[in-house]
Amino acid sequence: MPSTAHHTFRLCDLPPELQAAVLDHVGALSQADLHTAARTCRGWNERLTPSLYASLEIHKANRRAVFAGLGLDFLSAPELESRVGEAGSEHAPSSNGASAYAAPEPPRKLAALAHAKRISLRDATAALALAEALLTYPALSGALDELALSSSLFRSLVSTGMAAFGRPRSGAAFLGETLVARLRPKVLRIEYPPPRATLSASIFDPVMLARVLAVLVSEWRPERVDFIGVGTDMPPVLGQLTRVFCLPCSAKKRNERVWGDNAGCSAHGGLVRWHLRRLFGPGAHEDLIEAIDEGADPTDEGDIHPDAVPCAAGARIEYWNVPCLAALDREVFLSDTFKSWPPECDIEGRIAFFP
């Protein structure tokens, strides 16, 4: 009689090339399915760890799970700053006292987090947890392919003076300085809060917005900066390439009797023209430096130096989600825009519109 015994199938029973093909397919699954697959066995867990940690979204609800095993205390900004200042003791001879709280042996989670290439910080609590991890384990510091800042976090950094960079640095200034000093993102994604009801009610203080962006761009030198959900508060352009993802077009057209066929919609037609003049028009860079200097701390020698602020003359800018402008004759639109405000630099090939 034939045997009815069933043998357990094991992945390792397959030839090596088939094992690799299976795992390559699994590695392309969604994040939720990857978590399920990684719990299959130790071999799958080790193989899928790079994919699991390549892209991290950190927020208040999952920060303890993301950094589990590192022994973090999830301190507030003042507590973390105080811990960093505990330097000079037997256990913390360096200038960073937080590193004395690291585990004696490198935790396994440390190797997993080293695979992170894209990090999205969804709130200030997540940013604090990351800052504590970076200060406790300096080996986590380094380059990223992308860093995303949520609208609530970016608003907090701007409104609470992260770019004041005065001494003693505290609160958001200390948190911002820690991230700036220990991360190097190639791409910076900044989400904007919903716009105010009227054009005159700005989301950000323009001086503080300019200072924060000057710090981030001059220190990180990202290859690209993306602004997501931009309404009325158009950002200063400082990086090599800036992409502005605007809110949807208005259903209304701009006054064509004034602007002719190159009017654009009522939301973007005038706003983008104004933005371009502020970027490339006469005295644009001087006005930006003046705004940055307006919030300077005269007693702080480490404040932003004007020479470190990139000039828009060497930048490229792309406006996305603007079908009303993408459909226009670009050269005519730009000619009309700078008719009375001649640009201070060659803008050929530096400005583009996408639907």
Structural commentary:
- Helices cover 39% and strands 13% of the residues.
- The chain has 355 residues and is α/β, with parallel strands linked by helices.
- The radius of gyration is 25 Å and the shape is globular.
- The longest helix has 15 residues, at 206-220.
- The protein has an 8-stranded parallel β-sheet.
- It is built from 15 helices and 8 strands.
- α10 (206-220) packs across α13.
- It folds into 2 domains: 15-47, no CATH class; 58-353, no CATH class.
- 33% of the residues are buried.
- The protein has helices at residues 16-27, 31-38, 42-54, 63-66, 77-84, 108-113, 124-136, 151-159, 171-182, 206-220, 256-259, 269-280, 284-294, 323-326, 330-337, and strands at residues 55-58, 118-121, 142-149, 183-191, 224-230, 241-246, 316-320, 351-353.
- It holds the Pfam family F-box-like.
- It comes from Vanrija pseudolonga.
- This is F-box domain-containing protein.
- InterPro entries: F-box-like_dom_sf (IPR036047), F-box_dom (IPR001810).
- Residues 11-56 form the F-box domain.
Q: Report the span from N to C terminus.
A: 71 Å
How many discrete domains?
Answer: 2
Give the total of beta strands.
8
Ranges where pLDDT stays below 50 over 5 or more residues in a row are: 88-94, 163-170
**Overall mean pLDDT:** 80
Q: Specify the number of helices.
A: 15
Helix-strand category: alpha/beta
The value of Rg in angstroms is 25 Å
Organism: Vanrija pseudolonga
Domain F-box: 11-56
Protein name: F-box domain-containing protein
Pfam families: F-box-like
